[in-house]
ABC transporter ATP-binding protein
Amino acid sequence: MTENIPAPAEQPVFHLRNVRYLYNGRQVALDGIDLDVYRGEQVVLLGANGSGKSTLLKLLDGIYAPTEGTMRVLGRDIKAVASGEGAFGFHQEVGLVFQDPDVQLFSATVFDDVAFGPLQLGLSQQEVEARCKEALEQMEILHLARRAPFELSGGEKKRAAIASVLSLHPEVILLDEPTASLDPRTKWVLVNLIRLLGQAGKTIITTTHELEIVPIIAKRVVVIGEERRILADGTPAQILRDRDLLIRANLIHAQLHQFGLPREQELEPFAPER
Ligand SMILES: Nc1ncnc2c1ncn2[C@@H]1O[C@H](COP(=O)(O)OP(=O)(O)OP(=O)(O)O)[C@@H](O)[C@H]1O
């Protein structure tokens, strides 16, 4: 009577319990992190400079293994992935856009960087070219395809780095301050793309300092405090309306109104028309 057997509980994509990460064995970057992220969730990580957001994304991407605690990603022990075991398959499913695009761009041309991932997957030349064209068009940099990455502006490099992850078609996308250094038009193109990828069912975790984009790209917000622990976990409305929390986490300045911004408008997201 299979219908009486309860369905197994859905496994989270990311499962972290009491995770601690120390740089050089002494510099605490994350402490006591408990977090479950499920398939199809879109999460924003908020926190002040140095609160551990980038470190957390690097843990989720299997670049680092936790110093203490347990962590499973897509059902795998992250320590095994970080040591290289099954890393190839893992990185087909999980793609990280680094905060610094120079870390990510290493080929002679932008096209080669965007093609690198799909070529590693063993796709046909035709499929590789189709994926590259799509990713370059999504980031509006098709015209830069033959340029050397080191010749690009900061924002152009950022767009190339994002395209190099999009071309992999990962199910899980980790974005470290993706809109930083983008001009306003390109920023909203990317925000809309993240929104559409989320609607298509991708699991997306984004760090940002731009509160106005949070309600558009996420349904859940996790705030990391300066103690490198999770301070709050809730909906964008719950988090963004909690002025005391935002001040405590150094996400807004208590005296913001002194610069002439009316208090009631401080956190009003100005979403583009949908
Ligand atoms: N390679 C490193 N070696 C030693 N300490 C590091 C290293 N990278 C980061 N840290 C430290 O770890 C802590 C967390 O840094 P992390 O880069 O994760 O913060 P963040 O929240 O992403 O900050 P930001 O908003 O400035 O990008 C900080 O105290 C930082 O100084």
The pocket of adenosine-5'-triphosphate is lined by residues 23-24, 27, 29, 47, 49-55, 99 (CB under 6 Å). The two ends are 47 Å apart (CA to CA).
